[in-house]
Design brief:
Its EC number is 3.4.21.89. GO terms for molecular function: serine-type endopeptidase activity; signal peptidase activity. It is found in: Cell membrane; Membrane. It catalyses: Cleavage of hydrophobic, N-terminal signal or leader sequences from secreted and periplasmic proteins. It is a single-pass type II membrane protein. This protein has 178 residues and is an alpha+beta fold. It has a single domain, classed as Umud Fragment, subunit A, CATH 2.10.109. It is built from four helices and twelve strands. Strands 1, 2, 3, 4, 9, 10, 11 and 12 form an eight-stranded antiparallel sheet that branches. A hairpin with a 2-residue loop joins strand 5 and strand 6. It is elongated and about 80 Å long. The relative contact order is 0.20.
């Protein structure tokens, strides 16, 4: 009887440790998220399941998850970092006056008759010439149908949950995205 009781408590301890580790990993390191909507198409599709990496630095063109003003998490691409000027002119991205190619938009550019991204400057949208310290400017890849930095302004880094680049469900779409 004592042996059975001891074995039971060993199983309980192992179970509690496993639950604790899973909670720590999910809260501090990685977490799953489901893409809701079409604002990141063609890169991400509605219903894709992704892994959010909560560690590391946010870099330009990373796909990030952040808490949006509507008490909802958004998935968007980082375009502007602190101190950057951002401008779209003739459907081309300029950061700090330098042109940047966006290969992830080519599929949509081929399908549209007009510009995919209308002209704008960061100052026209936010009233500031540069992205403020501790904030980023984000855009969805589906520029014609994305509620992003053009509507909500810059995003405070404290609201960024993490970076995501791995689609793990559905299994037939398992991939790493750029």
């Amino acid at each position: 009887m004592a042996k059975e009781k001891n074995e039971f408590w060993e199983w309980v301890k192992a179970f509690l440790i496993a639950i604790g580790l899973a909670a720590v990993i999910r809260y501090f390191i990685i977490a799953p998220i489901v893409v809701d909507g079409e604002s990141m198409m063609p890169t991400l599709n509605d219903g894709d399941w992704m892994i959010v990496n909560k560690l590391g630095e946010t870099e330009r063109f990373d796909i990030v998850v952040f808490h949006a003003p509507e008490n909802k998490d958004y998935i968007k691409r980082v375009i502007g970092l602190p101190g950057d000027t951002v401008e779209y002119k003739d459907d081309k991205l300029y950061i700090n006056g330098k042109y940047y190619e966006e290969p992830y938009l080519e599929q949509y550019k081929e399908q549209t008759s007009g510009p995919l991204t209308p002209d704008f400057t960061l100052e026209e949208i936010t009233g500031r010439k540069t992205v403020p310290e501790g904030e980023v400017f984000v855009l969805g890849d589906n520029r014609l149908f994305s509620k992003d930095g053009r509507h909500i302004g810059t995003v405070d880094m404290d609201e960024v949950v993490g970076e995501t680049s791995v689609v793990f469900w559905p299994l037939n779409k398992l991939r790493i995205v750029d």
